[in-house]
Amino acid sequence: MSMLRVAAYVVSVLLLLAVIGFFFVVAPLVDARYNDTSVEPPFRASDAGKALHERLMVADLHNDFLLWNRDLLSSYERGHSDLDRLQTGNVGLQTFSVVTKVPTGSYQGTPSDSDQITYLVAAQRWPIGTWTSLLQRALYQSKRLHDFADRSGDKLTIVRTQADLENAMMARVDEPNRVAGILAIEGLHALEGDIDNVDVLADAGFRMMGLLHLHDNGLGGSATGMEKGGLTPFGRSVVRRLEERKLLIDLAHASTEVIDEVLAMTDRPVVVSHTGVRATCDTPRNLSDRQIRAIAARDGVIGVGTWPSVVCSTDPSAIARAMRHVADLVGVEHVALGSDFDGTVTPPFDAGGLSVLTDALLEEGFSESEIRRIMGGNVVRLLRRTLPVR
């Protein structure tokens, strides 16, 4: 064999190994690397915390599980959640959020001219259409959740209407391991500039619509974008369409101007699915006291996150302190959990270890009735008011 043929053979083998590595090894490694916890399991809570947590029905406002090539019905050692861990953590209502674009940047400023999700989508062997279309990425993740529900034997159901929610809550009385899922989207750049795609997403089951993610988009400014401006004309038309369809508006990641403008042009309650508060962790990503008061005045709910960038600590007590600040400022009825599990964050526990947070809330001085509202009741109340009747 000539040296040229040997070289060609070696190059071919290396290319094949690179392709295999990209499509079958890279994504699980990224998943394990970026969806870790700051504390190694098992997660330990006090006897009082565990006993109370067993009596709760947890509702979590934000989870990015659908971004990763894991089967929700299988158990994993990587990541933050799967059906088994949701059940262990007494999660009865889980918002599954869909991510379609993540540019490179930071909380100090994220330009919109790059996208890391394209590489992840390709590495995970998603359908070719999702490689170039943000809308198709959203619809594919919706299909994944519906497939999980279909295969779950009623352990997972999807909530679209008020009746679905009531049925799910009633079913948990006899079967406490059942989990209800709600579809949300993190950033309506997935509309691809076409307002009629609001209806496409709604028809696919989406009920919570986040206008922005980490970067400015065609609707307006992100709290961590480059311009941080208000709503665009397209953004205002989209907000009106969301109100017409009775879809819950999520103001997580929105700039100050966008929050003010959305509240000025709408009447229904809003949600901030996952955030921190500047009073306990002063970053551009978090809400000011003025914003908290404005959202509460609309009977909105604020989901407090679990990761260090929004609570400025890896200790669960920091999450409880942020929740305490919101409760003292506007009332406990406006506080909820927005974990951001599987969102490339590093919380101090995973979904199966949520009793650690219940323990921290007890230590913070919340009563059992207050903890019931924070850990689930407030989200159920919000959804009862905002979900479509049918």
Instruction: Work out the helix count.
Output: 14
> Biggest β-sheet: count, sense, barrel?
6 strands, parallel
The CATH topology assignment of the largest domain is: TIM Barrel
Query: Strand content of the residues, in percent?
Result: 5-15%
- Radius of gyration, taken over Cα atoms and rounded to an integer in Å: 21 Å
What series of H and E elements makes up the topology? HHEHEHHEHEHEHEHEHEHHEHH
SS-derived structural category:
alpha/beta
Please state the overall shape, judged from the principal axes of the Cα atoms: globular
- Level-1 CATH class name of the largest domain: Alpha Beta
- How many structural domains does the protein architecture include? 2
What share of the residues lie within helices? 40-55%
Give the distance, in angstroms, between the N- and C-terminal Cα atoms: 71 Å
Protein name: Peptidase M19
InterPro entries: Metal_Hydrolase, Pept_M19
GO molecular function, one term: metallodipeptidase activity
How would you summarize this macromolecular structure in one to three sentences?
The chain is α/β, with parallel strands linked by helices and 390 residues long. It has helices at 3-34, 47-53, 83-88, 117-123, 134-151, 162-174, 197-203, 233-244, 256-265, 289-297, 308-311, 316-330, 355-363, 368-386, and strands at residues 58-63, 91-98, 156-158, 179-186, 206-210, 248-250, 271-275, 301-304, 335-337. Helix content is 43%, strand content 12%.
